[in-house]
Write a structure and sequence with these properties.
The complex is a heterodimer of chains A (106) and B (167).
Chain A (H helix, E strand, L loop, with lengths): L2 H27 L3 H26 L2 H33 L13
Helix pairs in contact in A: 1-2, 2-3
Chain B lengths: L2 H20 L3 H21 L3 H24 L6 H15 L2 H14 L18 H7 L2 H29 L1
Helix pairs in contact in B: 1-2, 2-3
The chains are: A mainly alpha (106), B mainly alpha (167).
């Protein structure tokens, strides 16, 4: 790896780790279902950015773009389905708090 | 490549992510997520991946925001007392996030990573993303279509349930 590509990778890698930490913290701390989906979106953004940076460094932009497009499509389906489930739970329990879902508690 | 603009965009992304996670209102958090997505798409565009940038901007900043806003609009708005109670508990839980980020940042700066990664020679296949998607990754596209159909059916079933409940 040349020094310029290492510089690019370390710069982007630093901020990607911070973005990932934001998303992970959001998922770990929150009890609101919509906020956990938002945390998941932040995690996906970090991974997307990492793939694009690696594609730029290795010269395989086409391959990583194909992967990123797949990720984005799946991300949308996950977000839509999760938002639908959150809405359904809200209609049943009148709350978005994950602690209010106790029907499956053993 | 002018690195200053990239650094500025990356710092803005982190600020947008902090706003998303720590913002009080769910609606504002969703809008902050859209702003973060738009900034990420700018960075992707600057890294020579225009097609992925367009997808990120249109789908992540547009469609996902619309999904979240419509889901939030279907929920009951909180009363003033509920908002006060929730925001007190939230401040306690979220105040550590900037500290955690600073600690991770310092740890990353202090960490001496190895620089001798090997990069494989350029791939023999096409470098055009469209031909690559249709020729090399056909199976993935079939999987994507199946997942899209499954997602659409799942949402239809969830909303069907709501109508039955209303009756």
């Amino acid at each position: 790896m040349t020094s310029s590509s290492w510089q690019l990778f370390s710069l982007y890698g630093f901020f990607i780790v911070l973005l990932f930490a934001c998303g992970a913290y959001c998922i770990l701390v929150t009890r609101n279902m919509i906020r956990s989906i938002i945390g998941l979106e932040l995690l996906t953004k970090a991974v997307t950015l990492l793939l694009i940076v690696v594609g730029k460094i290795t010269g395989r932009e086409a391959l990583t773009q194909g992967l990123v497009i797949t990720i984005i499509v799946i991300e949308v389906v996950v977000a839509a389905t999760a938002a639908g489930i959150a809405l359904w739970v809200f209609r049943r329990t009148d709350s978005l708090d994950v602690r209010s879902i106790r029907n499956l508690k053993g | 490549m002018n690195m200053n603009i990239d650094v500025m965009l990356l710092v803005l992304i982190i600020l947008g992510a902090l706003w998303t996670v720590m913002g009080r209102s769910l609606l504002k958090a969703t809008i902050a997520l859209a702003v973060t997505s738009a900034l990420v798409s700018l960075v992707i565009f600057r890294l020579n991946s225009p097609l992925a940038a367009v997808f990120e901007l249109s789908v992540c900043a547009g469609l996902i925001t619309a999904i979240f806003v419509s889901a939030i609009s279907m929920m009951r708005p909180l009363t003033h007392q509920e908002v006060l109670a929730i925001s007190k508990a939230r401040v306690k839980r979220y105040r550590y996030l900037p500290v955690v980020l600073v600690i991770i940042g310092i740890a990353l700066i202090l960490m001496k990573a190895r620089q001798d990664f090997m990069i494989m020679p350029p791939p023999p296949f096409s470098t055009d993303v469209r031909s690559l998607l249709w020729n090399l990754r056909r199976l993935d596209l079939i999987g994507q279509v199946v997942i899209l159909i499954a997602g659409a059916l799942g949402i239809v079933i969830l909303f069907e349930e709501k109508k039955q409940n209303d009756k």
